[in-house]
Design brief:
CATH class of the largest domain: Alpha Beta
Radius of gyration: 37 Å
Strand content: 25-35%
Strand order of the largest sheet: 2-3-1-4-5-6
Number of strands: 32
Shape: elongated
Distance between the termini: 73 Å
Number of domains: 5
Length: 638
């Protein structure tokens, strides 16, 4: 069990822990000089023989050091709320209580200290104050102990109460990747760098490799202590000290607020969706207000984008997105605290719902439905169908692994969920949604044919833009591949079309083609340029060029260079000449091909380069070879 103190400055938190444990802890010289706790203190004690070590985290009570208190409050099992009998409930009593409630710490005990300084009536008055303070919240039934660290009154009873609470602490799940938020880093002579923190999930063993975040540096666990005892393994819920090493790893690189993670969990983020609760005593919170975010042991600046309205009233909850100025680590369910921009008061807190929040459509009904499901269920299997049902572009399983801290090997996918393989990795889709996307794509392709009847079809990128489907390029390619394999979409070169689609020329095009066709048929291997055809027929160059390109998409013409087109029949005759030359005197030389056609060298090179692009020939130096797998030489492979 890990116990954390809470309460106002000078209410006797440190003295009480010393009375409970018989230890002074690792107080710093400046703390002893000033007589106050400035930073976190750590103690370990066996409260009862055979009960095992209990870890204690002593937090500062001064308002200037609330950020240190927050770093120590993460991951504790029980809060020991300390209230002095002479002062009673004070500002930091209220703030610390609000913080531990927002952090969802499961259990609480109240210690009324310094009872030796006051009369019995005063103690009863303080008890009533505390009952009123706790009554609206989750700790309304928390036991209250009256103690004195000076006389020892009530200390034994408090120790027995803590032992009883230790038996009630639920063991944290060892599932998922290991996570530790670093609260201290120091060097030990003969050992090297040591970092400490509370293990938030998973388990770790000596010689395991971890990632130091946010830098991503790989480190190795050389040794470890769990609950202040040497061990080979540490578990979630324990205070852990790790002796780590890594290439060029220096103590100056490690600070409070960083984290150590199982390597597959490492994914720094700066955009996090949360469920935000504003404290009842606060003023109305406005959209995009700056705040301090305390997450794990890290304190960062962020803007809060409210997702369900322009403002949040005191005591209310709302989905919000944090836009953070530095990379953080989080998984679903992590608790966080928000303080004002000057770091003087606690505004509220919340739970992480999605640490990889979207930048676009964050207020859409579909996204809000996803957040609602994430807020009302901790079960991955229950949430997944809702997330997929409101996802137009599928979900990345690697992101889900990191969001829920659930490796894919532990998943039980429902029957209506499908894993789609793409060039960029797998994507999860609802089966019905995937089928709907196929139907929508076919509909859009049919619409394209209606709008552009004189085109064979769009290429892949144009179809992706035209369809308007909110899919990544790689996912769209996989959707298209499945439709092609099923025969629902056919390809002609780079063009995509429905199987029964035929390019149709309009009446004006048909008339112009009938006038142009004799010019190309009679020209043999030396067709006219676009400008010559246009001049002969009294047409604009652009009109002739556009029709010839349409005919090229139909397969009737071939565009050799920009304004030089050849009739398909004659091009195939030229290909036959090439095949014969290759058979008689390989490899094919430019001069041999030139003499066979009776044309100039420049024109022959243009033809050969076109055949290279078609895949009939392969250039080797200044000569050509016939490709054995080409379609023109093997017409049966069409």
């Amino acid at each position: 069990m890990i116990v954390g103190t809470a309460g106002h400055i000078d209410h006797g938190k440190t003295s009480l822990l010393q009375a409970l444990t018989g230890q002074t802890g690792d107080r710093r010289p400046q703390e002893r000089e000033r007589g106050m706790t400035i930073d976190l203190g750590y103690l370990y004690a066996e409260l009862e023989p055979g009960a095992g070590l209990t870890g204690f985290i002593d937090v500062p009570g001064h308002e200037k050091f609330t950020h240190n208190m927050l770093a120590g409050a993460q991951g504790i099992d029980l809060v020991l709320l300390v209230v002095a009998a002479d002062d009673g409930v004070m500002p930091q009593t209220r703030e610390h209580l609000a913080i531990v409630e927002l952090l969802g710490i499961p259990r609480a005990l109240v210690a009324i200290t310094k009872c030796d300084r006051v009369e019995a009536g005063r103690v009863e008055e303080i008890q009533r104050q505390i009952l009123d303070l706790l009554e609206p919240g989750p700790y309304a039934d928390a036991p209250m102990m009256i103690v004195s660290s000076v006389t020892g009154q009530g200390v034994d009873a408090l120790r027995e109460m803590l032992v009883g609470e230790q038996h009630k602490v639920q063991e944290r799940s060892r599932e998922g990747g290991f996570r530790l938020a670093i609260d201290r880093a120091f060097s030990v002579a003969g050992a090297g760098i040591v970092v400490t923190g509370t293990a938030l999930s998973g388990m770790i063993s000596v010689e395991d490799k971890l990632t130091l975040g946010p830098s991503g540096k790989s480190v190795r666990v050389r040794g470890l202590h769990a609950q202040n005892q040497p061990a080979e393994q540490a578990l979630a819920g324990q205070r852990v000290a790790l002796n780590i090493s890594g290439e060029r790893l220096e103590l100056a690189q490690i600070h409070r607020g960083q984290w150590l993670l199982t390597q597959w969990l490492h994914a720094p983020t700066q955009r996090v969706d949360i469920e935000f609760q504003l404290l009842p005593g606060e003023r109305t919170f406005e959209h995009f207000h700056p705040v301090h975010v305390h997450l794990g042991t890290k304190d960062v600046i962020a803007r809060v984008a409210l997702l369900e309205g322009p403002r949040l009233n005191p005591g209310e909850r709302m989905f919000a997105q944090l836009l953070i100025n530095a990379p953080v680590h989080a998984v679903k369910g992590d608790r966080l605290i928000l303080r004002d921009a000057s770091a003087q008061r606690t505004l509220g807190g919340g739970r992480v719902l999605d640490p990889f929040a979207p930048a676009r459509r964050r207020r859409s009904p579909e996204r809000l439905a996803q957040l609602h499901a994430l807020a009302h269920s901790d079960s991955f299997e229950q949430v997944l169908p809702v997330l997929l049902g409101h996802s137009a572009s599928g979900l990345d399983p690697q992101i889900l692994e990191r969001q829920f801290n659930r490796p894919r090997t532990d998943w039980m996918l429902p029957a209506n969920v499908r894993l789609i393989d793409t060039r960029q990795g797998p994507v999860l889709f609802n089966v019905q949604r995937w089928g709907q996307l196929k139907f929508m794509l076919l509909e859009q392709l049919a619409k394209f044919h209606e709008l552009e009847p004189d085109q064979m079809g769009p290429d892949r990128d144009r179809l992706r833009r035209f369809s308007g489907l909110a899919l990544e390029r790689s996912t769209f390619a996989s959707l298209l591949d499945e439709l092609r394999e099923a025969g629902a979409i056919t390809t002609s070169g780079p063009w995509l079309h429905l199987p029964d689609h035929q390019v149709r020329l309009n009446a004006d095009d048909e008339t112009l083609w009938q006038q142009m066709q004799p010019l190309f048929e009679s020209a043999g291997f030396d067709p006219p340029w676009v400008r010559d055809v246009a001049k002969t027929l009294g047409q604009e160059d652009a009109v002739v060029r556009l029709l010839l390109r349409k005919l090229a998409r139909l397969g009737l013409m071939h565009q050799v260079v920009r304004d030089l087109f050849m009739y398909d029949v004659q091009l195939r005759q030229m290909a036959a000449v090439l095949l014969k030359l290759a058979e008689e005197n390989p490899p094919i030389q430019v001069t041999t091909f030139r003499d066979a056609l009776g044309l100039g060298r420049k024109r022959c090179i243009q033809y050969l380069e076109y055949f290279d692009r078609l895949g009939l020939t392969r250039r080797i130096g200044e000569s050509r070879q016939i490709r054995p797998d080409n379609a023109l030489a093997n017409p049966d492979t069409h």
